[in-house]
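Quick one:
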Amino acid sequence: MKPRESFLARDPDERVVRWGWVLWCSWLAVGGALLLGDYRGGVLGIGAILAAPFWALWLLWAIYRVARFALRTLRNAGLKQWSGRYYEFDGRQVRVLFEGDAIWFAAADVFESLGTARYARDVERVRQVVGRDGLRSAPDSDLLCFSEKGLTAWLDRRTERPAAQFARWVETQVVGPHRKRRALEAVQSDGADP
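Output:
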């Protein structure tokens, strides 16, 4: 049985973020007014000390949201070539890169889709099954990917039911349509050339 994930461990949904910014702006107005009143009254030191934890939280919220946005942007910047090349298996996205006749599947997405244990994700362990060319960085990318043959070899060694479903999904939803599309393109290009 999996332990329940706490609310704070997950990314807050839109309502929490929205209310966080509302409270942030409210404290800016109210806290700023109180601090200004203390400054005018000559008791700035006591008011500033009492309000310091609230000002720290106010500042941390903005730093956290900006840092989170920057990290997400930087993390996704390396995946621009994958933009629009996602397929869905069992509610999870799997990145697929087509380069000519070669098809590359993002290894992290495959492992995640099948719920593969951490020890089974070890690169050297997987390469013993699929070979050196079966699991390597995709062309022009640092992302570790399965080749079509490598993925087939790895899935053939898996005994779980989801692995068989994934193998069937790869053949019917990704590889099969890609081959048909390539054949159609070849026929059209042959028909266009006199």
